[in-house]
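Consider the tokenized backbone below.
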């Protein structure tokens, strides 16, 4: 990777991926882009462009302007938000991807497109979910992720495009708030623990979900694109895992630092139904074997770091 375009750079992942990659590849070699203009000053420390994923002409112009050889496609409407407007979810998630796949075919750049645990469904094995298994999601977000996986495979097999990706679990970050996903509670709980010493969870106790701390998320996105392509059997939608927990477990870890912390429940049935269709824990053996993936953060290490960072950030 020499000249990298990150689309959707103002989102939860992009806002931390861009600074991390600029430290590796150089400020001027990582171009951040988003449809939003109210982005953090960090993103503007290097090149920044306003780009709509549905405007193929503008995308092509930016790719030519910066001689882009790698694109990170982070544009998406997430699970809970996507259920409120399924048509828009399809338009953005798949329309934007198709634009990039067509341009990759024409201009020959590598393309990273993340998938998600949302690509699985109720009929998927929930424990140690295999790399290759049945995928029948019950959300439009999940439908777009399965479709995206298949499209990336198709364009690689038919046109030889260097498409790659991972299936992310829920991502937990202390920098940018999440944008409407089912796993958002696992970010919000830390803020509420510090600010209010209590939290109302919208998922039931006992609802296990795969989760990952942002530093591991960033490494996975970079390492898969740096991997030796001759060793990649799957290329797209690698399961990557780090930790699996349910709400009471994260509350117990928080109480080690904030003993008075209390968790209550007010169930969001839409999010609960989505969560119950997703894996408890994915098997990421293929990622280990094909490109050396290994997570660094578990729940205890993540909780200690989250609370330390947020206490400083919130000045509490």
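A designed sequence for it:
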């Amino acid at each position: 990777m020499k000249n990298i375009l990150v689309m959707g750079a103002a989102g939860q992942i992009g806002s931390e991926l861009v600074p991390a990659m600029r430290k590796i590849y150089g400020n001027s070699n990582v171009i951040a882009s988003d449809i939003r203009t109210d982005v953090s000053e960090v993103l503007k420390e290097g090149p920044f462009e306003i780009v709509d994923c549905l405007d193929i002409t503008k995308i092509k112009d930016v790719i030519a302007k910066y001689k882009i050889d790698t694109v990170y496609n982070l544009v998406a409407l997430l699970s809970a938000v996507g259920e409120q407007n399924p048509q828009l979810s399809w338009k953005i998630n798949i329309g934007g991807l198709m634009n990039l796949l067509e341009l990759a075919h024409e201009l020959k750049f590598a393309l990273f497109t993340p998938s998600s645990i949302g690509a699985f469904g109720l009929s998927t094995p929930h424990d140690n979910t295999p790399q290759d298994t049945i995928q029948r999601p019950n959300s439009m977000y999940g439908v777009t992720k399965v479709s995206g996986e298949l499209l990336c495979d198709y364009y690689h097999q038919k046109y030889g495009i260097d498409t790659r990706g991972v299936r992310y679990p829920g991502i937990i970050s202390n920098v940018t708030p999440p944008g409407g996903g089912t796993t958002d509670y696992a970010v919000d709980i830390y803020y509420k623990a510090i600010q209010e010493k209590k939290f109302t969870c919208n998922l039931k106790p006992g609802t296990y979900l795969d989760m990952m701390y942002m530093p591991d998320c960033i490494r996975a996105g970079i390492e898969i694109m740096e991997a030796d392509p001759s060793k990649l059997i799957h290329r797209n939608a690698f399961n990557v895992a780090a930790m699996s927990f349910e709400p009471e477990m994260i509350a117990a870890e928080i109480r080690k630092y904030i003993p008075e912390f209390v968790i209550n429940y007010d169930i969001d049935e839409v999010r609960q139904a989505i969560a119950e269709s997703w894996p408890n824990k994915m098997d990421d053996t293929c990622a280990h074997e094909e490109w050396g993936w290994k997570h660094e953060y578990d729940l205890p290490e993540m909780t200690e770091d989250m609370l330390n960072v947020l206490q400083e950030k919130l000045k509490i």
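DSSP finds eleven helices and 16 strands in the chain.
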